[in-house]
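Reading a protein record of the kind used here takes only a little practice. The integers have meaning only within a learned vocabulary of local backbone shapes. With that in mind, consider the following protein and its fold in token form:
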Amino acid sequence: MNKWRIFSVAAAAAMLLTGCAKIEQDTMPELIAATETTPLVPVATAAEQPSHESVALQVPEITREEADITLEAEDGSIPTGCSVSIVPRLGYSGTGYLSGLNAENGSTLELEADIPATQHYDITVVLGADTPSTCRILANGEPVYTLKAEENENFVRATVQGIFLSKGKCKLEIEPVSGIVDIDCVELVNNTSLYDEDAAISQTPVNSHASASAKALLKFLADSYGRKIVTGQYVSDSTNRELEQIYQVTGAYPLIRFADMQNYSRNGGNAAQATAVEDSLAWAQEGGIAGLSWYWNAPAGNASIYAKDTTFDLSAAVTDKDIATATDAQLSQMAASGEISEGCYAMIQDIDAVSEQLKKLADADVPVLWRPLMEAGGDWFWWGASGADAYRWLWKLMYTRMTEYHQLNNLLWIWNGQSSSYQVDKSQYDIASLDVYVKDKTEAYGSRYEQYVALRNMTGGKLLALSECSTVPDMNAMFRDNAVWSFFGLWYAPYLGEYTSNDALLSVYHSEGALVRGDYQP
């Protein structure tokens, strides 16, 4: 993969801001498109085949207590090159503020807090900067968050939510990365957002004609939600080498096999390599769950998923004509008469072609986790580049045509638009998901609770999933942070291998909190 995209579903879920300046998270999740087959990076297998034994979760006991702590910056040790000031910034608390925390001289503010209870806290840094600056928050030596501050005259408040801290002494550090910042104070309060009551999760598919097997699958996911996470892995081809690789290391197979329908596209597809449907059927017959995405080549023009590489314009295909259930003959006539564009007609022909393939799974009574039109909010794919209105029109068209015209009642629909502005009607999807990558392979993936909370707030009542990830999530952290995703989908090489160690795979696939192939009985 050679496309890196920096994107966040809703930074406000992790950081709340007040004041005149904008402060952004520095290390955002990165999204990578699933469009090319890359060589698999081998993972060294164990000398002997490991048994698949369940390992208990290790989750600290959370004691929820009210807490409200303010640490004045001027009360700490004054770092080299800094001073305590009372002007020109006004509105500070205490007796002044720390001025001149400078990345160039390596100065770091250190403050000590007495943490009253083992729980999650919201940490607020009150800061100001004369030029765009970046600083990192550390708790007991561990990086917590990186803040980017724009130039501002006044102090602004940057609140990072849901940081887990143990009872006792805690060293908090504000470390400048670039520029110069002034710090008024650091505040800690007990977090509540991670413990907000979730809306009831529906066990009924949005498609009122859903098949019994689709209903059973959604019920299984809903019953497991919050108690278990379903394991998933993307495959690069029909050899299932990624799945075998995981089995060699862990002694277990993932429950969900994720594949791509791109080769079924009429424009630029490869019929010789179009085996996703047959492979999914075989996987389901072996007790697995089929997951399918569609990285859709533009229906006309250059065969690419990327807006920059194709002349296809979704906005030019949008129409107010009732075409979702029209026959091909009717659509052909509408295109010939100019009622709809040729691009619109080509787009529906593509949907029809893929639907005919998905019908093979419906005829075999195989339910499918169906994820089309993903990552639209990033606008790099053609289906997102024309804006949210065109995207929502296309989603509704696809949903209606597949469910009503083609009667694909075996699909559970996953909305993976990645942006609140691109959110589609809740009556048209069953599961909300995010694709979350980290570029630095040494960075701990953790639970991704900040994205979890953002997505929960945006789509309340839906199952939440990590539809793509750069490594497996931390099992203990997910349960500790009350952010247990419904399922995850680990991308293939280099993410399976270079980014994901054998130990990480073992920690997930042997955890009592994980569901693997064999744990679902259709």
Summary: The radius of gyration is 25 Å. The mean pLDDT is 88. The domain at 202-310+353-515 is CATH 3.20.20.80 (TIM Barrel). The first strand starts at residue 5 and ends at 6.
